[in-house]
Write a structure and sequence with these properties.
By secondary structure, the protein is of the alpha+beta class. The protein is built from seven helices and seven strands; from the N terminus they run αββαβββαααββαα. The radius of gyration is 18 Å and the shape is globular.
């Protein structure tokens, strides 16, 4: 499957050519403290995406780097994020040197995590794409019950948006088309409630073991 160009693209100007060519970063300007220089653009934009219920319990999660290498560290981070965001009306938070954008829907909280220097609008575009894509496959019922009953589709959606921390797609229509293509190609059809719940349990177990 041909994938669209990954984000972010290097900005024009100093450092862009080096970033595109994989060459060294330009030297610091005279008098510029090296510790204050902006980070060079990176393809690996997303650190984690996770969905929690309204009690802060994980339903779906993927971590794309080793910032939180153990399950215990991931769960502590998710708890801290939930405690910081669950009672606020904001859409962005900063915690532990990371930028977090989030959205609530009935009894779900959706989070996209990037580094402290990532573009907030870029992270928000991923969050919006995730929500709109889930809204489609869940037939406008973005809530815990329907998410658990369609966990296969939710993982397919996430995999089409982010792969290994790289943003592949931010257009919900494109995501849905690709998910439908993959579903048709693999024979993924509507299943009985029992089958879907069993599949959801297996997917959650796999997510927790990542």
């Amino acid at each position: 499957m041909q994938r669209p160009e990954a984000w972010p693209r290097p900005h024009p100007g100093e450092g862009a050519a080096a970033a595109q060519a994989g060459g060294p970063a330009p030297p610091a300007r005279a008098g510029e403290p090296s510790g204050l220089r902006l980070q060079e653009p990176s393809l690996y934009t997303i650190k984690a995406v996770f969905i929690l219920d309204n009690d802060g319990h994980r339903l779906l999660a993927k971590y794309y780097d080793d910032t939180f290498p153990s399950m215990k560290e991931q769960m502590v981070f998710e708890k801290n994020v939930f405690n910081k965001t669950s009672r606020t009306e904001s859409e962005i938070a900063f915690l532990g040197g990371m930028t977090i954008v989030y959205k609530s829907s009935i009894d779900l909280f959706l989070y996209v995590v990037g580094s402290s220097y990532e573009n907030e609008l870029m992270l928000m575009s991923v969050l919006t794409c995730l929500f709109e894509s889930l809204n489609h496959i869940l037939r406008k019922n973005v809530e815990k019950r329907w998410l658990l009953e369609n966990m296969d589709g939710a993982f397919l959606v996430l995999d089409e948006i982010v792969d290994g921390g790289i943003i592949l797609e931010s257009d919900p229509q494109q995501v849905i088309q690709k998910v439908n293509f993959r579903a048709d190609d693999s024979g993924f059809t509507e299943q009985s409630v029992a089958q879907v719940l069993q599949s959801a349990k297996e997917q959650i177990k796999w997510s927790l073991l990542k």
